[in-house]
Design goal:
The protein has helices at 3-6, 25-28, 34-43, 50-60, 75-88, 107-120, 137-144, 155-163, 180-185, 189-196, 214-223, 254-265, 277-289, 303-315, 325-328, 348-355, 376-386; strands at residues 10-11, 65-68, 98-103, 127-131, 148-153, 174-177, 204-209, 228-231, 242-248, 270-273, 294-297, 320-323, 338-341, 365-371. The chain is of the alpha/beta class. It binds adenosine monophosphate (AMP).
Length: 430
């Protein structure tokens, strides 16, 4: 995926009358017009997903929406299709005006959503664009001058652009906050409030979040006007099509075990989550030295390196992608077969986000967690959250020798090397 090339503005050309493929007939009943149905058919979707069935009519009616939907539910089409439909019926954007604004927490997710906007809007005469940090701002300023019907953005870069007078947010008709829980986790609340202050009072608001903390509820209360509340899957529950398993093992042998699992099961496309950037780097290097094509993505990698790694992983050149939680947001690969937790996340909700990367859109997925004695407390928190006990399966030759150990010290651990995490070093004892 070349984000640079994709970030170029796309003027979508009007489509002239081929009949809508019967493929997307189920979508027609939801009130979308022909160019959108044709784009849906081109994507190969036959039936709207549950969140789409609920969300599309609500947005078309002009209602505010509060949706509990994790990635993999089809939420992006759920808001993008009706948003495009509504924009079709108004005047085009011009002179720096933005008509619909989609805010996302990460660059990767922004690029992904913008791709969807482009794909669903391919037969419409609407202009869409995406802006995020880490790349030159000048071309973005140039492009925005002409006005943008749908702008997908990360909050920091949007504020920069607004301060430089590159765009006008006082005509926004529709605002979408995508993965709002993640935006708050990443400390974007102040930026979001600032952006809200630049928008006109009268507008439609859509808020999507995988989890609903008190902070999210507070944000929603201040933002949404009598919202329709939608739920794609029961709150805080994992997708039913994901087979979850836990392999108990020693911290110091996680790298060995993972390398063994990939080779002995012949896994071809594996997304591995690491709690730390350092752990991600070390594991990727280690797998490469075992002859497995692997790369790491995290916040310390340049945008170019992240984009290259993602595209290599999508195309199959890379067999293993090791990512931190934040970098992994927005990775959208259909039918991602295997997700591995090299270590358990500090925050139990992140487990749900992580395994939401597999078993998407009706495909079966496989989520494996490598769990050491030090992680028992994290494991308990996850099992409490998802309301089930993960099946334990020891792998012969990798049975744990450490059966109880003091819990990990997670305070202030950002950027520090993980204890073990496939490093080959024994865990530190206290
Ligand atoms: P999302 O939850 O928006 O990240 O979408 C998850 C994946 O499901 C994406 O790869 C979409 O292309 C795909 N998808 C969305 N809607 C449908 C649908 N109605 N039928 C089949 N796949 C879909």
């Amino acid at each position: 995926m070349r984000v640079g090339a994709r970030s170029a503005i796309s003027t979508l050309t009007p489509h002239l009358g081929t009949p809508v493929a019967s493929l997307a007939a189920d979508f027609a009943g939801l009130g979308l017009s022909e160019p959108l149905l044709k784009a849906v058919a081109a994507k190969g979707y036959r039936h709207p997903s549950p969140i789409q069935k609920q969300c599309i009519p609500a947005v078309l009616e002009g209602l505010d929406v509060l949706a509990a939907a994790q990635t993999g539910t089809g939420k992006t089409a759920g808001f993008t299709l009706p948003l495009l439909e509504r924009l079709l019926h108004g005047a085009h954007a011009r002179g720096g005006v933005v008509r619909a604004l989609v805010l996302t927490p990460t660059r990767e997710l922004a690029a992904q959503v913008a791709d969807s906007v482009r794909a669903y809007g391919r037969y419409l005469d609407l202009r869409s664009d995406v802006v995020f940090g880490g790349v030159n701002i000048r071309p973005q300023i140039e492009r925005l001058r002409r006005g943008t019907d749908v702008l997908t953005a990360t909050p920091g870069r949007l504020i920069d652009l607004q301060q430089q007078g590159a765009l006008r947010l006082d005509r926004v008709e529709i605002l979408v906050l995508d993965e709002a829980d993640r935006m708050l986790d990443m400390g974007f609340l102040r930026d979001i409030r600032r952006i809200l202050g630049l928008l006109p009072e009268k507008r439609q608001n859509l808020l999507f979040s995988a989890t609903f903390s008190p902070e999210i509820r507070r944000l929603a209360t201040g933002l949404l006007h009598q919202p329709v509340q939608l739920q794609a899957s029961p709150e805080n529950q994992t997708a039913a099509s994901v087979e979850q398993v836990l392999h108990p093992c020693d911290m110091a042998r996680k790298g060995d075990l993972l390398s063994h699992l990939i080779r002995s099961n012949d896994w071809q496309q594996v997304l591995v989550f690491s709690r730390t950037k350092h752990g991600a780097n070390r594991l990727a290097e280690r797998l490469c030295s075992d002859g497995l094509q692997a790369a790491a993505i995290h916040g310390n990698k340049s945008q170019g390196a992240r984009t290259r790694a993602l595209s290599g992983f999508k195309s199959g050149e890379l067999r293993v992608l090791v990512a931190t939680d934040i970098a992994a947001r927005g990775i959208d690969i259909q039918q991602l077969p295997h997700v591995v937790n090299l270590d358990l996340p500090n925050v139990a909700e992140d487990y749900v986000h992580r395994i939401g990367r597999t078993g998407r859109a009706g495909c079966d997925g496989h989520a494996v967690s490598l769990v050491a004695a030090e992680e028992q407390e994290l494991l308990r928190a996850i099992e409490r959250l998802i309301g089930e006990k993960l099946p334990r399966r020891e792998v012969p030759g990798f049975e744990p020798t450490v059966l109880s150990a003091p819990p990990l010290d997670l305070s202030g651990g950002r950027g520090r090397p993980p204890r073990g995490g496939g490093s080959g070093r024994p865990p530190r004892r206290r």
